[in-house]
Amino acid sequence: MSPYWNCDLFDFFKVLFGRLLRLEGPMASDEVQLCVLVQVAIACGILGPFLVLKRQTMFANALSHTMLFGIAITFLLLQTLYLPALLIGALVSALLTALLTQFVSRLGVDVEASLGLVFTFLFAIGVSIVSVYIPNAHLGVETIMGSVDALQRSDIWLTSAFALFNGVAILFLYSRLKI
Questions:
Q1: What CA–CA distance (Å, rounded) separates 103 from 106?
Q2: What is the mean pLDDT of residues 43-71?
């Protein structure tokens, strides 16, 4: 039976925080999903206003799409689904997206237009690589957005670390970011 049965709104949060703070026993998958998604919202909400001020609101969307390029290249080179290697490939692709966007915008193209050009270019290459060289791969919505059903309790600590990192980075770089 659910621990939230017959709970009103305030009782729900009382039970939830009680279960989270005890750290005993298995958490329900909904609790894990809620905790991870709250941490992701905090991590993104900290950086979001600065992206709006710099007119790069599409940047996060572009990164989520262009990481497919890095993952596909890494898979072709290594022929394995070793997660740390794929994450490094995604990171390199994200950095390439940022660098190419800055390069194209310095050529006189508007920042958001340059971002649109770079991310559609890299995403199209990534989709082409997967379609041609990895024919049994399924490119569903989960490819871009992920699947919240696959989250585990360890992901709570990972997303908390990202939220903390973003908060500390904003504290130290605030004067440079607001310019």
A1: 5
A2: 83
pLDDT per position as a tens digit, 69-88: 999 999 999 988 888 898 99
Amino acid at 34: L
Three-state secondary-structure class, residue 140: coil
Give 148's DSSP letter. Answer: G
Residues in the chain: 179
- Is the distance from CB of 126 to CB of 109 less than 8 angstroms? no
For residues 69 and 144, the answer to whether their CB atoms sit within 8 Å is no
Whole-angstrom distance, CA of residue 81 vs CA of residue 72: 10
Q: Is the dihedral of CA 156, 161, 166, 170 positive or negative?
A: positive
Q: Alpha-carbon distance 18 to 21, whole Å?
A: 5
